[in-house]
């Protein structure tokens, strides 16, 4: 059986890179005596895949990991069992059984499903953006100006070259408080018709800072189009003509979505059955 | 949420920030305020290496079982962070609480290899603790040294408050209890050290004075404090099945060198190879019981989630219950995807069976350590491995599908001549020929032989402690000779030749058998930028040579001199059980090419029996009847047991088929 696990990554664990997170989960499943399915051969490994690997330095409420199991108990029990052997900074919040693949149906990895993601990008204490921005209102005003340009062209570096790209179409949402974010998000996301256990009931683990300057963003994510929040912030600094400070912003991922083929709306990865 | 000592900006700038954040699975979490004793345990090398060390995990477990003690860890910051910490004056911190090390009561540093000495100074300096023990005040932590290099602590003696000589399981609790008492009674640092000096196995360098003769050798080594003992007796845990074992070892987030469970099946070695320090200082050989090991394996796999278990010992084949243990592990855990790794195993039917069960033949290689190229020289070093046995073992393995062999040799062993060196090339070739005896249609491609040589470094408490060491020039000419001899072999194209840098070995020789006069050289080299000397890309030979020169210390005095049988060695004050008389007898036997059978065959009265246990008291261990031990040496042909020590190291790690995805 295939299970999609949703988890949070926070605190000092933001310094653990993706490959190490994978190794971490393999060991955690063993500690919790999860009946994982192993690949065949002399070096068997647990069958697992991650939806959208998180970069070093980022935290998240919405990470997804698909695993293949031979057997398991009820979701609540499994979540509890695994959380009991996890270290601070990793916390499982969701456990959804995926539908078995029908015959002739192509296998879809979680990674291939991903189309966009929500982020909360916060200014860390001890940093400021140039001289003029002193408050969240100042910041919102400037960011709105930036966001409402006709196009936002950046030089996107690829492995071999650098080319100008308009990132504006890749930003589908910008909001400056939680209520605004939720309203805007709900207009883009398919209404939750699924009352699966998973629903992220736990508190967000995003860090908050005294300066109170932050922005919610929804960005294209995945293999078709991918925009990192850091690139948006860099473009914003360019717009302000202020030198970009790489370490000034804490990026926190809130959710990862796929695009529902019928409605064209977004659905969180734990709201789909495959 | 845990607070870190380093800012996000620093952590996101340096390589592998996970080295500095702690928080690993099974990390001990205590309230530092409630700990009466704060102990920081240090492995002076980079995190991935330090985390792989079993000894620290054992001590971490011992200390943290005490409610009054919080033991934390620290490792050497890598060069990138080292630079930042110096620039910004950030004090070195422990991983658990992230508090500065200088606030601790103790800093315990394990000394696993000589080339880590500059890293010891780095730890002290970054911790903002005075480097020399004499400069420390009541505010500074007590700095303790331990581990194999403390069997000659003299070159670094001035940097430590005391050394713990021997195995940590025995008297650490006494040391901590004494500390609490002294604290309660408001005793001074010196008064505490006087208390420590009275605990068996403890060496307080400041309580001893060394005088030198005009020729530079030691005239006298005497105590200057009546509380200190004349001789420091090595500590040995005699009951390894009823002692501490870390059943909840730490599990690092980043891949450590040993990313697996280490199950120490026994301590000590019965073989008595004359170059091997571990084989002498860990005597007598003591086994852990099968039941104890089974229980530990279960608990450790459960508590860590590791997918590999490795048996650790100096010579696994000599463990009496090896077959039972290995088959238990395979049956119990093999089906759960657990790899089993068996280093230092003799090739026999059992080994081949196990190997075919636990690993993919195509991906692994066999490792033999003949150490010397000719039978004559193998007899000199008492390495009871015959050419016949090597070829037979390799042949069997080739028939089972292996086609890769690694061979380890030493150059510069005492009495070595050109034929011995040529023997390395010849033996490598003979192994390749053995492979081609297999009919062509049954072969698994070409054979690959990797022949590696290191330079012999004489170590304290070995029969070769009197021996002269080759100079760099001698080494290089020997290496050239071997290169040319390999090129003359039939299968030269199948033989890859690797060698170890001679400069590092030369320095290791001085640090291993040096005395207190070396301390200043180490200090100066460190101050000149030497650090991570065991990492070839950071080894600065020129800076070391400058430090020797400016201190008027010659390397030749320590390395290139056959030491007199009556010479007082810097480490003579330590009683390791094995006596100097025994070592000298062994050295003389080496020079006359006489071998000494292993401990289970005959006892040669090395002295380790004084500890009252282990192999010395096993049923059937031969007893010495003739006190004239000079003559008890057995001639080569009769003495080499048929099942001589062949070694295979099976490496199972490093082959990962994980689905790898790019970082976002």
How would you describe what is shown here?
The complex is a heterodimer of chains A (274) and B (664). In chain A, 23% of the residues lie in helices and 29% in strands. Chain A is an alpha+beta fold and 274 residues long. Chain A folds into 2 domains: 2-112, Pseudouridine synthase I, catalytic domain, N-terminal subdomain (Alpha-Beta Plaits, 2-Layer Sandwich); 115-271, no CATH class. In chain A, strands 1, 2, 3, 4, 5, 6, 9, 10, 11 and 12 form a 10-stranded mixed sheet that branches. In chain A, 38% of the residues are buried. Helix content of chain B is 31%, strand content 13%. Chain B contains 21 helices and 19 strands. In chain B, helix 6 runs antiparallel to helix 7 (189-197), helix 10 (322-333) packs parallel to helix 11 and helix 14 packs parallel to helix 15 (472-487). A 6-stranded mixed sheet of chain B has the order 2-1-3-4-5-6. Chain B has a 4-stranded parallel sheet with strand order 15-16-17-18. The longest helix of chain B is centred in the middle third of the chain and has 18 residues, at 418-435. Among the domains of chain B are: 8-233, no CATH class; 574-639, no CATH class. Chain B is α/β, with parallel strands linked by helices and 664 residues long. Chain B is globular and about 75 Å long. The chains are: A alpha+beta (274), B alpha/beta (664). The A-B interface holds A 10-13, 15-20, 22-24, 26-31, 38-39, 41-46, 48-50, 52-57, 85, 87-89, 111, 124, 226, 228, 246-247, 250 and B 1-2, 4, 8-9, 11-12, 17-18, 21-25, 27, 251, 253-255, 301-307, 337, 339, 359-360, 363, 655-664.
């Amino acid at each position: 059986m295939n299970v999609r696990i949703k988890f949070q990554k926070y605190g000092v664990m933001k310094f653990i890179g993706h490959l190490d997170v994978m190794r971490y989960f393999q060991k955690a499943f063993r500690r919790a005596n999860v009946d994982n399915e192993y690949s065949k051969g002399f070096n068997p490994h647990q069958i697992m895949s991650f939806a959208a690997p998180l970069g070093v330095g980022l935290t998240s409420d919405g990470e997804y990991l698909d695993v293949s199991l031979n057997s398991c108990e009820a979701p609540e029990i499994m979540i509890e069992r695994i959380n009991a052997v996890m270290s601070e900074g990793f916390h499982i919040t969701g456990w959804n059984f995926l539908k078995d693949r029908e015959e002739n149906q192509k296998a879809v990895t979680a990674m291939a499903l991903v189309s966009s993601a929500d982020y909360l990008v916060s200014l860390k204490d001890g940093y400021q953006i140039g001289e003029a921005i002193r408050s969240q209102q100042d910041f919102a005003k400037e960011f709105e100006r930036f966001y409402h340009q006709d196009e936002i062209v950046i030089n996107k570096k690829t492995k071999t070259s650098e080319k100008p790209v308009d990132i504006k179409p890749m930003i589908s949402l910008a909001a400056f408080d939680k209520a605004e974010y939720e309203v805007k998000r709900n207009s883009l996301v398919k209404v939750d018709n699924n009352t699966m256990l998973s629903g992220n009931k736990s508190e967000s683990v995003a860090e908050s800072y005294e300066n109170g300057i932050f922005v919610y963003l929804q960005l294209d994510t995945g293999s078709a189009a991918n925009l990192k929040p850091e690139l948006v912030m860099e473009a914003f600094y360019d717009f302000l003509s202020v030198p970009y400070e790489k370490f000034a912003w804490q990026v926190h991922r809130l959710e990862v979505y796929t695009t529902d083929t019928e409605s064209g709306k977004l659905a969180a990865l734990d709201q789909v059955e495959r | 949420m845990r607070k870190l000592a380093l800012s996000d900006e620093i952590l996101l700038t340096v390589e592998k920030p996970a080295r500095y954040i702690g928080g690993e699975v099974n990390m001990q979490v205590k309230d530092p305020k409630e700990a009466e004793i704060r102990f920081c345990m240090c492995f002076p090398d980079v995190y991935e290496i330090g985390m792989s060390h079993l000894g620290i995990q054992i001590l971490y477990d011992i200390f943290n079982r005490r409610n009054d003690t919080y033991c934390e860890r620290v490792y050497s910051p890598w060069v990138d962070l080292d630079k930042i910490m110096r620039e910004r004056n950030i004090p070195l911190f422990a991983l658990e609480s992230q508090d500065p090390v200088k606030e601790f009561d103790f800093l315990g540093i394990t000394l696993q290899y000589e080339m880590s000495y500059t890293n010891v100074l780095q730890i002290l300096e970054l911790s903002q603790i005075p480097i020399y023990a004499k400069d420390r005040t009541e505010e500074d932590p007590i700095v303790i040294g331990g581990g194999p290099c403390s069997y000659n602590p003299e070159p670094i003696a001035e940097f430590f408050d005391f050394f713990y000589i021997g195995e940590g399981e025995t008297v650490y609790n006494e040391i901590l209890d004494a500390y609490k008492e002294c604290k309660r009674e408001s005793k001074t640092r010196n008064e505490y050290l006087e208390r420590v000096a009275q605990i068996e196995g403890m060496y307080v360098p400041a309580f001893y004075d060394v005088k030198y003769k005009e020729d530079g050798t030691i005239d006298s080594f005497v105590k200057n404090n009546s509380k200190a003992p004349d001789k420091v007796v090595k500590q040995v845990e005699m009951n390894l099945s009823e002692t501490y074992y870390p059943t909840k070892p730490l599990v690092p987030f980043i891949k450590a060198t040993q990313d697996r469970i280490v199950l120490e099946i026994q301590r000590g070695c019965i073989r008595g190879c004359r170059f091997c320090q571990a084989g002498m200082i860990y005597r007598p050989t003591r086994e852990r019981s099968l039941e104890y090991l089974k229980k530990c394996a279960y608990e450790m796999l459960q508590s860590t989630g590791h997918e590999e278990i490795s048996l650790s010992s100096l010579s696994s084949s000599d463990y009496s219950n090896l077959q039972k243990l290995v088959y238990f592990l395979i049956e119990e855990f093999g089906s759960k995807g657990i790899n089993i790794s068996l280093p230092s195993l003799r090739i026999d039917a059992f080994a081949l069976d196990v190997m075919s069960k636990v690993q993919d033949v195509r991906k692994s290689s066999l490792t033999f350590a003949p150490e010397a190229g000719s039978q004559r020289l193998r007899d000199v070093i008492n390495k009871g491995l015959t050419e016949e046995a090597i070829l037979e073992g390799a042949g069997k393995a080739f028939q089972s599908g292996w086609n890769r062999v690694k061979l380890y040799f030493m150059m510069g062993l005492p009495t070595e001549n050109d034929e011995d060196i040529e023997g390395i090339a010849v033996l490598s070739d003979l192994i390749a020929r053995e492979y081609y005896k297999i009919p062509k249609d049954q072969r698994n491609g070409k054979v690959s032989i990797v022949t590696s040589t290191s330079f012999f470094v004489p170590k304290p408490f070995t029969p070769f402690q009197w021996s002269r060491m080759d100079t760099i020039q001698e080494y290089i000419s020997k290496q050239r000779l071997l290169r040319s001899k390999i090129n003359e072999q039939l299968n030269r194209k199948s033989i890859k030749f690797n060698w170890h840098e001679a400069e590092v070995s030369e320095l290791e020789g001085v640090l291993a058998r040096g005395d207190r006069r070396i301390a200043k050289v180490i200090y100066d080299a460190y101050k000149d930028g030497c650090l991570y000397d065991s990492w070839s890309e950071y080894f600065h030979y020129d800076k070391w040579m400058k430090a020797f020169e400016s201190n008027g210390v010659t390397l030749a005095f320590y390395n290139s001199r056959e030491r007199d049988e009556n010479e007082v060695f810097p480490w003579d004050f330590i009683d390791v059980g094995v006596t100097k008389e025994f070592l000298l007898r062994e050295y003389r036997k080496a020079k006359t090419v006489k071998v000494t059978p292993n401990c289970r065959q005959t006892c040669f009265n090395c002295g380790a029996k004084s500890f009252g246990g282990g192999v010395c008291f096993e049923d059937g261990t031969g007893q010495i009847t003739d006190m004239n031990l000079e003559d008890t040496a057995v001639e080569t042909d009769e003495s080499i047991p048929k099942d001589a020590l062949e070694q295979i190291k099976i490496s199972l790690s490093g082959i990962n088929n994980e689905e790898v995805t790019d970082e976002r």
